[in-house]
Specification:
It is a single chain. The chain is α+β, with helices and mostly antiparallel strands and 178 residues long. It folds into two domains: 4-76, no CATH class; 88-177, Glutaredoxin (3-Layer(aba) Sandwich), CATH 3.40.30. It has helices spanning 9-12, 21-30, 37-48, 55-63, 67-76, 96-100, 103-114, 157-177; strands spanning 4-6, 17-19, 88-93, 128-133, 145-147, 150-152. The strands form two sheets. Strands 4-3-5-6 form a four-stranded mixed beta sheet, with helices on one face. It has a two-stranded antiparallel ribbon with strand order 1-2. It is globular.
Length: 178
Amino acid sequence: MTDMHYLNYEEQHIDPVFDFTACRKVLDKNGRDESKIIAVLQGIQQHYRYLPREVFPYISNEMEISEAKIYGIATFYENFSLEPKGKYVIKVCDGTACHVRKSIPILNRLRAELGLTGEDITTGDMLFTVETVSCLGACSLSPVVMVGDEVYAAMTPDKAAELIQTLRQNELRATIRE
């Protein structure tokens, strides 16, 4: 069995070859029972940082679940993304407590620092994605921003710019070490 799936580029508007090795590893780890679909989707998203559309027919075939059902699950849960995300996903809380404590200027500063315009949420280098969320559950620390699993409390636009600078420096150091 090959892990390469050949697609008609002109008809599908996607890469002509997709490597399913990571998908197979996730399936082997979690199992192919229908009850494992969320864990499988989480594992695949962790690898690619989103759910590529190419994986839906593959998962459907491997788990014997309709593509429509898998797509329904992937679009129902907010945690899943069908669009590529950056290495650093920055979530700006815009719940009531954060909003009244000026979360929007923080969001605007992050977008300006990253050169995001219009409806863009991810930088061209795929390093950063900026999203707003309804609530991060840290109201007493508002306004808050979350990067990965780390919460940054009492944010300001200047602190947000410093955070971007720190993340870029960390990324540069990591690149130099490689």
